[in-house]
Amino acid sequence: MPLRPSPKLKPNLWDGLVALLVAALAVGCGALLFRERGTAEVLTAVVTADGETVEQIPLTDPARRTYTVQSCGHTLLLAAQAGEIWVERADCLSQDCVHTGHIARSGQSIVCLPARVIVQLEGGTADGGVDAVIG
Ligand SMILES: [Zn+2]
């Protein structure tokens, strides 16, 4: 009986360690995915007017829908469909909110300063990047 482990046993042991490491990584990634899904599942447009949340629009419906938001004497017409939202019409002077165009990623936002309206995207497949457009 050899006292030292045979050279053949070494790679097996190493393989076992690597397999264990891969398994641990897989579990870690799984937990991370689960956590992200748990916090935010559906891409949602949160509309605030003068600091108050007036609409929470889940962007899941493929049919185009419009929402009228009135704030600070201004009227904004928002249009939304699956995965994106935009300001279709606004009576503010700058029209920057209209020119911002469509937003479709979590963290993006449309801001209308004269009307004090903010449209912020939350949830969905968050990439961590905050991409705010102020207008
Ligand atoms: Zn505007």
Question: Summed up, what is this model?
Answer:
The protein is 27% helix and 35% strand. By secondary structure, the chain is of the alpha+beta class. It has two domains: 1-39; 44-133, N-utilization substance G protein NusG, insert domain (mini-chromosome maintenance (MCM) complex, domain 2).
Give an overview in words:
About 4% of the residues have low confidence. The chain has a five-stranded mixed sheet with strand order 2-1-7-6-8. Strands 3-4-5 form a three-stranded antiparallel sheet. The protein has two helices and eight strands. Helices cover 27% and strands 35% of the residues. With 135 residues, it is of the alpha+beta class. It is rod-shaped, with a radius of gyration of 25 Å. It folds into two domains: 39 residues; 90 residues, mini-chromosome maintenance (MCM) complex, domain 2. The structure holds zinc ion. Zinc ion binds next to helix 2.
Protein topology:
Elements: H1 9-39, E1 44-49, E2 52-58, E3 65-71, E4 74-81, E5 84-90, H2 96-100, E6 109-112, E7 117-122, E8 132-133
Parallel strand pairs: 6-8
Antiparallel strand pairs: 1-2, 1-7, 3-4, 4-5, 6-7
This protein binds zinc ion.
Residues 90, 92, 94, 96-97, 112, 114-115 line the site of zinc ion.
